[in-house]
């Protein structure tokens, strides 16, 4: 069957989709977006977390047909306009970026805040769980009206298994990103709300 | 002597971090190949016997199926000496889940569906998968993993136990455990067939490229070259990003061979094979279950007179792997009478292999719980007991330590952790929770493996490329090597690019034994020095120099080990027995730390795996079928974010002047060693219940 | 495999009548696992996502209105939107899987799968919920206690779909408790729910993961109705709470399995029941 789905803001079409196929398979194998990972096939590890109509889901448990006409955002879609299509996803042998203090790949300032904080806090090791964690953390921060408590972060990320890090640095990254995002939002509110700066 | 000031020792951010957080890092299965076909294995459903007949007609008839390969028609391998890798070469079945066939199809769904339609009849023979200490047929292996002798015996342990004022004589067990890296094992095989040999063998001209998720591209290359009878230069293994391994990707496994056999069956097509999470439980290695008897004899003052550590564990009947579980007890504590032994049961089980800190991880659960029991029996603080038995030289070899700071780690940790607040067992009740503190010692040997080479090239414009066929499985080696090269060349971090993950790069040893940074790093230092020696500070563009890892004479003169102290606090629900671990602290002595940011993550990650080992992980073999029942992440539990509250690691600020040019001893595995014992000891302190069998489940605390 | 996409509830019923072999799929958190792991491929998937009305909840008419929770209401929404009326169910829903699973998974999907370990079952039993099953032949309301037929078997006919579940709003404090070996992402070793009805002076109970099907502890309910001092102030009499726990444990028929031993399950149930009663009763005081 054919599946039409908006991914990272672009309309995409997948043809010859098998009816039992998952959204994860469509993203990875048909739409050239291998960011979301397949690690358990049963929703236990969270490595395939993506946004579906603004809500985070395990893409391995969404039937491809159920994504028809809906909006998907993957980890590739979080950093501005990068790596959305085929060919962008295969960096090898990174060199420390001359503009980014020893950090390679896309420049840090082009990343989403959550992505940037994962690098800065040392929350990345093998990186296989990272895309799912980044999307889930992004959702937590975007939906919270304040910086979440540690217990809330642990609970929100409980479905994203990581075998390398022991989770502590992931927690640091999310705390850091949440603080920055909310500080920025507060600053913007202060600018736009009349009198807000005086409160 | 290089001055380590610019980069080494600084918390440089991971060089591949941005690629990983954006989803752009191409793992093995993510890499595009032209016109791929997909393989799905057929696995044995019996634990022992032979394949009597195979009916693959229904499978072959599925739309999109390109080939069904079984032992009847698989290409013949040149070397079948390693039974794990002698895939589809005979009708014999040695364990449940072993490959008996593979389906290759246009889509993974078609391959998987068709694999389910392959009808295999078996001639079943009686199997035995149950490890017991009293079973007949236990044998001593010629040596255990790491090249150590199986048994040691010094003095007279039995007499010393007789004479000792205080003794501990207990059995401890650990279950079958699974590495479970987040990225499943993946191999993508591409053949350039050359001239096909008559009879379907692998011709002299054939060339194999394998994209593989591995801890050692060169190891996979040399092994597969031998298996397929190809000169090594006709095999290339590419593996830049690896989603964790913890030992399970350290040696080639059967799926590597299966992928290549499947691709050979569909000429001109690359074949992608990804083990499913469930298949990994039979095919990607595991840690053997262990039954360990520990005997400690001591004077009333706690000074050890006897240490015996005798281990029974399993191996697969088709291939021996002997975990070195008792080896750590040979050097850990001073005692005039010491005995260690390993006995194996060759069972009809999947092939065990490396899992993070093979030997020390299960061995120190037993030894360090036994030490806690001895402390209790002597009425001594467990830290004081360990201090009293800290040997001045290695009791095994008599060599001086290159740096043994266990007692410093213990004392430093005690101060930081609030050890003085510890009360008598079972006496601290907060609400309905029993609270306890526990400690255990940790150690891991310094390994620097020979066989690595690095090459440095000046690209012009102030930029250098360093090449070495190493692997970063998430450890941070990529970043550490970049730092090491920058300092060794005397240039900025950003001027250096390190290329790894390809067997076309200079030889490198496996990412195992916590040896990567020390071994590869030494080669990189040597290559950088050679480069400067030849070209000086103003090299021409294109200048290139390389060097092999230099010898390590101090390794023969000193006993070289890292040490650590593990602390844990537990809270046990007094009514349900549920255990939570609100705090863990590790204090480590590992020589120089090349990158504090990546190092801290390694320690904490290891400790968390130890927590997981203590409370969650247990593979359950159904002895009627030989099947690991809980073969997925829903039932084989590893710690989640919600289980880990406050795990911290610190280290002594030091260098080990005997540990190569970096003064570093390796950090990848020590974090798991002793962690489970610290938790078990804390559980005892909380509840008064001594747990000697892992994992610690709520039911045993209510007995 | 066919992928059926009804736009309306009537279409869905017609398709299910024509294709009783079709597997309904809503959140996919159970169905897709079966497909991904290739445990038998359904001949057809009946995707209920497009039937918009299923994702709504409402109040039933009549003198004792109930919450009618549509088959497409996810756990996340149930917690956020219905937690005030259905505290026990919301508490149980919070322990289901991970946020990602709760974002897709539904209570009604839990009923469809009828796993003895499903977290939604005990509070539904404790509240006396009704399952609204419908086919082209008509609608029936199945009392929850009659819905579970065996391990992963329920009372639905081949042409029936669950449209909604009707749950009485709490008439007093409710509590759900679960024992697991991890802090999250854990299938219950066993679980228990209690719902106190302060007006009618009775208690409902539900036991999970301790018998082939979720079940009530009838004797324990009767005991509480008769023996609890419903007008009394202060905490529950400890002896009464202990007896209640024993009766709950006696109602279970647990087995030994990978997750836990039968005797531990019985013990833990007694503890959970005793505690849940205490917590619920304490909440009444507030």
Indicate the structural class of chain C.
Answer: alpha+beta
Major sheet summary line of chain B: 7 strands, mixed
In angstroms, what is the radius of gyration of chain B?
26 Å
The amount of helix of chain C comes to 25-40%
Q: Can you tell me the CATH superfamily of the largest domain in chain B?
A: Aldehyde oxidase/xanthine dehydrogenase, molybdopterin binding domain
Radius of gyration of chain C, taken over Cα atoms and rounded to an integer in Å: 19 Å
Task: Walk across the major sheet of chain B and give the strand order.
Answer: 3-5-1-14-11-12-13
Beta-strand portion of chain C reads: 15-25%
The most extensive contact between chains is: A-B, 81 and 77 residues
Estimated helix fraction of chain B: 10-25%
SSE layout and pairing:
The complex is a heterotrimer of chains A (199), B (703) and C (286).
Chain A: E1 3-7, E2 10-14, H1 23-30, E3 49-52, E4 55-58, E5 71-73, H2 113-120, H3 130-143, H4 150-156, H5 168-192
Helix pairs in contact in A: 2-5, 3-5
Chain B: H1 17-21, E1 37-43, E2 49-55, H2 57-60, E3 65-70, E4 92-93, E5 99-105, H3 108-117, E6 119-124, E7 143-144, E8 148-149, E9 152-154, H4 157-163, E10 166-174, E11 186-192, E12 207-212, H5 217-228, E13 235-238, H6 254-264, E14 271-274, H7 277-283, E15 290-298, E16 304-316, E17 337-347, H8 360-378, H9 382-388, H10 406-417, E18 429-430, E19 433-445, E20 453-460, E21 463-467, H11 477-489, E22 496-499, H12 516-535, E23 544-548, H13 554-557, E24 561-573, E25 579-589, H14 596-615, E26 621-622, E27 627-628, E28 647-651, H15 675-687
Parallel strand pairs in B: 1-14, 12-13, 16-17, 21-22, 25-28
Antiparallel strand pairs in B: 1-5, 2-4, 2-6, 3-5, 7-8, 9-17, 10-15, 11-12, 11-14, 15-16, 18-19, 19-24, 20-21, 20-23, 24-25, 26-27
Chain C: E1 2-4, H1 9-18, E2 23-25, H2 31-36, E3 44-47, E4 57-59, E5 67-70, H3 75-82, H4 87-94, H5 99-104, H6 107-113, H7 121-127, E6 130-135, E7 138-143, E8 148-150, E9 153-154, E10 161-167, E11 174-179, E12 190-197, E13 202-208, H8 218-227, H9 238-251, H10 262-285
Parallel strand pairs in C: 1-3, 2-3
Antiparallel strand pairs in C: 4-5, 5-10, 6-7, 6-10, 8-9, 11-12, 12-13
Helix pairs in contact in C: 3-4, 8-9, 9-10
